[in-house]
Design goal:
- The protein has about 160 residues and is an alpha/beta fold.
- Helix 1 (about 20-30) packs parallel to helix 2.
- It is about 30% helix and about 20% strand.
- It contains 4 helices and 6 strands.
- Strands 1-2-3-4-5-6 form a 6-stranded mixed sheet.
């Protein structure tokens, strides 16, 4: 994608089975800092039960905050939060309201985070030339010029030096 001139970035599937700081350390160890990268994305959706549930249970919002803070400190940009209506209703209604959201609402306009989403995943089984198999389709809220401005203001740091 980068070779084709497209902005690139990485995302992390959040789990309620491990502390957010531990998840951030793993993400940071795996995803390099690259100049002009899009912000990291914390994918927060229901993932099913833990093989070994933590005792006591973790607070998802506190663990998300820990991930967001650690990733922002390392990459130099605040991660986005990708989420579903189910996760948002279970955990995020009154929390993390100032964050930038990428919402999943296949086939219909989002019925949650209506006025604040920045990206909308509207399809799970799209097709694109040169890609075998289904791809997720997403929309940015705004014009191409708005996206360029978003990328300028949300770009991450280059390699540590």
């Amino acid at each position: 994608a980068r070779a084709a001139g497209l902005p690139t970035g990485a995302y992390h599937f959040f789990t309620q089975c491990k502390p957010g700081a531990e998840q951030a350390r793993n993400f940071i160890a795996t995803v390099p800092r690259e100049a002009d990268s899009l912000p990291p994305v914390l994918d927060a959706e229901h993932m099913g039960p833990c093989k070994t549930p933590p005792t006591p249970p973790l607070d998802p919002v506190a663990e998300m905050r820990a991930f967001l803070t650690a990733a922002e400190a390392h990459y130099g940009c605040r991660p986005l939060i990708y989420t579903t209506m189910e996760f948002e209703r279970a955990y995020l209604r009154q929390a993390l309201q100032a964050e930038t959201y990428w919402v999943s609402s296949p086939y219909i306009p989002p019925l949650f985070k209506r006025d604040v989403w920045t990206f909308w995943q509207y399809h799970h089984n799209g097709r694109r030339p040169g890609v075998q198999g289904p791809v997720d389709l997403n929309a940015f809220r705004g014009t191409p010029e708005d996206f360029a401005a978003f990328h300028r203001t949300h770009r991450c740091l280059g390699p540590a030096g």
